[in-house]
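Supplementary Methods. Inverse-folding protocol.

Structures were first reduced to a discrete structure-token string of length 460. This string, shown here, constituted the complete conditioning input.
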């Protein structure tokens, strides 16, 4: 299955939108604030410096606002503002785009009268929902998807909407839940942080939404609104559009929002939602909180030790990380806080057969290397790294072709005319003339059989 082409980050997606669509987006103060948060630091300085200044600013003035920044960073910041149509340029003077300026002003000064930041519920929820519960819920829902991707037998299969998204995005391949397997893109997906994983799926969700004639602007408004909501606060569905209510059902399956039941008139954003447009500092805080909810250790980011004899020791009790390792490591022993195994030709070939590349295996081992391994150079044993790559080259030298073997001909004449026919058709894959046999593709099989039958009925 061909992997659909889609943007790799929300910034790329936004820059690819037509100006008319972006101007509709900028009508929402919450969206303007979210987009401001997604801008590079220097671009944010430029925006804030022009936000309450209605007069055009000369181009040369921008250099004075960030004197210590390199020309390259200044240029990149301006290109980002141009790409998202946030500025207007005329006669070497620059102003903020009017709709965006008004929206961001309203977001910062409390002038939002359209409930773009959600409507908090004015009645108390009878069922106590706190931040700890929301973290545990988000973790449970999100990890159930990741466990399914790596093939962990948890007994829980995501619903059809999630399965469709995983397949449509190319993260998994297969037509039924039992036959679906992680793809090359799926393993690369597992190497991302949680926020990156969430946006990868949400961007593909946006593509699918457009194919289903859902308004992309409404979808984006809702996603950006979620990024600005308060963790632990419940919000009403009353001001949501029909499209956004449909989205709520889908996002509930990913753990991005929590509803006690589908008919509930209130919802809670989880930490996966409130950090969608956060800066790196907030994301690090969120990551620590989610790790606490997952009961992971502080050293979880670096837990793998790889020895020159191909033995692997992983100091983790995370079922998900163990399942990922099992994709390319032959695990032999398991202890309360550690698993041990070995990288072998067979374990790597199994991973390669599932679409995982040698470079992805090496990247995973590098990213999750134990702090003790980072004290030596090179980080990973060269002999092991080279051998993993050689095993992939070995696999690439061999190709499998489905087809049919023809043999047991009555005499050499029958063999020769049939083999010549298959060769002329271009369907012959392999031939052993001295043994009187040849192999043809699946597509060519019926044509060769028909030819043999015709010749047999006609006689010599």
């Amino acid at each position: 299955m061909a992997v659909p082409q889609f943007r790799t980050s929300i910034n790329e997606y936004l820059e690819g939108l037509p100006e008319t669509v972006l101007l509709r987006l900028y009508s929402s103060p919450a969206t303007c604030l979210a987009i401001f948060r997604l801008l590079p630091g220097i671009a944010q300085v430029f925006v804030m410096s022009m936000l309450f200044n209605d007069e055009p600013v000369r181009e040369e003035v921008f250099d004075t606002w960030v004197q210590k920044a390199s020309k390259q960073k200044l240029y990149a910041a301006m290109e980002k503002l141009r790409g998202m149509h946030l500025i207007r340029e005329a006669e070497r003077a620059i102003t903020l785009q009017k709709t965006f300026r008004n929206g961001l002003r309203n977001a910062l000064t409390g002038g939002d009268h359209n409930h773009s930041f959600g409507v908090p519920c004015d009645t108390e929820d009878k069922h106590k929902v706190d931040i700890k519960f929301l973290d545990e819920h988000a973790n449970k829902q999100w990890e159930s998807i990741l466990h399914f991707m790596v093939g962990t037998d948890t007994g829980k299969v995501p619903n059809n909407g999630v399965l469709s998204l995983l397949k449509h995005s190319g993260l998994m391949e297969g037509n039924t839940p039992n036959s679906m397997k992680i793809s090359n893109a799926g393993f690369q997906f597992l190497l991302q942080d949680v926020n990156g994983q969430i946006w990868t799926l949400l961007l593909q969700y946006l593509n699918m939404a457009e194919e289903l004639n859902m308004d992309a602007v409404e979808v984006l408004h809702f996603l950006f609104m979620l990024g600005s909501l308060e963790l632990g606060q419940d919000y009403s569905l009353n001001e949501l559009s029909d499209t956004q209510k449909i989205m709520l059902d889908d996002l509930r399956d990913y753990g991005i929002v929590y509803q006690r039941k589908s008919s509930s008139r209130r919802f809670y954003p989880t930490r996966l939602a409130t950090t969608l447009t956060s800066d790196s500092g907030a994301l690090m805080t969120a990551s620590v909180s989610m790790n606490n909810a997952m009961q992971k250790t502080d050293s979880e980011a670096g837990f793998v030790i790889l020895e020159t004899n191909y033995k692997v020791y992983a100091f983790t009790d995370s079922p998900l990380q163990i399942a990922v390792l099992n994709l390319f490591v032959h695990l032999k022993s398991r202890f309360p806080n550690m698993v041990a195994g070995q990288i072998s030709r067979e374990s790597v070939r199994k991973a390669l057969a599932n679409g995982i590349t040698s470079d992805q295996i090496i990247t995973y081992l590098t990213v999750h290397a134990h702090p003790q391994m980072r004290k030596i150079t090179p980080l990973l044993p060269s002999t092991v790294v080279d051998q993993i790559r050689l095993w992939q080259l070995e696999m690439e030298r061999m190709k499998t072709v489905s087809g049919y073997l023809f043999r047991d001909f009555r005499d050499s004449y029958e063999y020769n005319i049939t083999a010549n026919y298959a060769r002329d058709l271009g369907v012959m894959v392999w031939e052993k003339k001295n043994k009187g046999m040849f192999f043809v593709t699946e597509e060519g099989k019926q044509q060769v059989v028909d030819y043999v039958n015709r010749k047999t009925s006609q006689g010599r």
